[in-house]
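Data deposition worksheet. Section B asks for the primary sequence of the deposited chain exactly as it was used as input, without tags or linkers unless they were present during the calculation. Section C holds the resulting structure in token form. Section D is free text for depositor observations; keep each observation to a single sentence. Incomplete worksheets are returned to the depositor.
Section A, Depositor: J.P.
Section B:
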Amino acid sequence: MNTSVKVVMASMLSRRLLTRPFHRVNKIPKLFFGASSGDGSSDLPTDTANRPVKRISFSESLRKVRDSASSVTDSSSSDSSDSSDSSDEEFSTQSQMELGDLSKSGRGRVTSQDPYMTTESDPISHTLDHEGQYYTVSTEDQKLYFPNFINPIIKEQANAFGELSLMIRKPALEIIDILKNSSYNCPLPKFIIYGQRGAGKTCTLSHVMHYCGKQNHMLLHIPWVNDWIKYHTSSTPSLSRAGFTNIPEQANSWISYFAALNAPLIKDLKVTKNIEWTKKEVTEAGSPLKSLIDFGLLRQKYADDVVGALLDEVITHASNNKFKVLVAIDGLNGFFRPTTIREPLEKQLFVHAEKLCLVDSFKRLLNSGNKNIMAVCTVSEEISPRDEREKYTPFYLLGKEAFQELEPFIPIHVENYTAKEVNSCLDLYEHKQWIQNPAARTDAGHQQIKFLTNNNPFAISKLCGAI
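Section C:
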């Protein structure tokens, strides 16, 4: 392929990689990684270069690679001249060399000798010395702090790799360092994480959540605000607040999630005041907090009000130094936007997010100014309509009024991978067989991946999973 044609196509791909579907990304190995040099000769064997690309699932392709490596190992002592396909033989030989450590460590688990990994799995001990390295979240911590995967890409990779690995990056280290050196006896500043799509905002939030969870903080986590304000969400008029709307299904799901995420902390807590639901149904002061949770799960029409009561109880107990609280919200700007939920009594109108009881309860928590409560949130351009995604800064995504309402806060910018981070990412993907194309596993292939994705973590993951 002519060099100028390659540059033009690469430029087009780099501009559209984050906005266009990835159903055509499987042509990249043929166009780039298998591209011919200036003299017209292909870098790959002729049979491989002319072979049509067949799209298969990652798990199926990973299984084929492992079977190939196993067969090469079993036949290494015999004559290999019976192979009829030179390209398959070349790929198998390369797989045997690259997967040598795989058979020793089992399922591609990393060792302490891997420079892109750290054996320090406790986020409390992470420092700038670990920046750009991955750490493995233990199975126990996954069940405790990551029961609800936020990003489908993280879930897909964790299932494929057989473990959950998060990269230690500077934005998360900055937040953790501030929390370590802050006085919890006074109101703590809020943190708003921002950056372009796919830069790693959710992973940064997950790292901070892991740190706070290990510190026995209560976690009040909203995985994705868009799930509350978009799609097909049933609504009912609020029973306790005039002009407000309930979304009982989402409230019921959040109560269940809250109970699972904070089970060790809430088992001994008591309700501090009487809460009257009806003339006959009252949650009395001194009863276990679990009884309030059970009421919200069993009586779904009261779920939104139960969430508000739970948050009030959390504020009270935190003020009494029972525990510290982390409010973690992914997509905070969704709290200040119109929704696609129709008014329960006027179906031609849509509800604004500020008129949802769930949103109002969390906004009161964010602005409570109580001690022992901190908030780490993200703002995302994906929440906004497509014609309102010119910038990804907090002021643009939140708007002037919301920006002033949330002040004071500390903005935390998450950029695309640095040179060290992108090399660590590609090394991990090679080790875990997320990158399977032999040409993409070379230095030249790495350079083309970096060029096509502009070092964007999400784009790298999608591209490497497709080639």
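Section D:
Residues 14-59, 72-112 have pLDDT under 50 and may be disordered.
The first strand starts at residue 134 and ends at 137.
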